[in-house]
Amino acid sequence: MTAAPSRAHSFNAAAAQYAAYRPSYPPALFDALERLAGRPLARARVVDVGAGTGIATALLAERGANVLAVEPGDGMADQFRRTLPHIPLVRGNGDALPLADDSADFITYAQAWHWTDQGRSVPEALRVLRPGGALALWWNGQDHLDPEAPWLGEQAIRIARFLGTDDQAHRAADHASNQVGDLTTALACHRDRLHWSRRVPLDTHLANLATHSAFLVLDDRRTSAFFAQEREQLLKVFPDAVVEERYVVDLLVATP
Description:
Diverse_substrate_MTase; globular; alpha/beta; about 260 residues; Rossmann fold; S-adenosylmethionine-dependent methyltransferase activity
């Protein structure tokens, strides 16, 4: 399923905020990626598609991978180049990768697979991957089902009510299950889930939420009013204005 173009392009106007407030990924994610792929990232040729501002790209490079980023958006690409000028970036997307056949050991999508047309992106991945290569997809979602953090589930309900959507649409880990489509029939797939958390100022938490496409495409005044109300709600739970965000990373590694 290809997402609405307006949402796909909405990140370009908020690239700086995206880079500043979106969460990173835990080291255990890359340990799991190597384990499921059966090969190390060090010295591997990795193509990070839909790289955005380079949050995942930078971590892949830190693991010793030779990373090439692919990003379609003007704003995101500009931010990437400011943040990671030493890592090569080409413009393009997963539906038509600007890469040679058999040129990558890994193709990674960090929260970007759902922006592709799987009827095109799956064959493109198979074309570009070398024998023994792996396609890795992951989504970093707030763990709304965590019994130790009931406030996250309550927030998800408020967000769903505001956006007029099903609450499930804001559970990234569950949402990821609906985004793999025919991938599991084309490739051998392995899956893992990893839990982690970060403590951030309340305003950082709200700014992170505001960088999600569902909010970016809305009127600024409307979203500002919602976040002001949300801030009041969260101060009841976190009077010190420091929030512990709990995440679950849904990882899928597919091999030809």
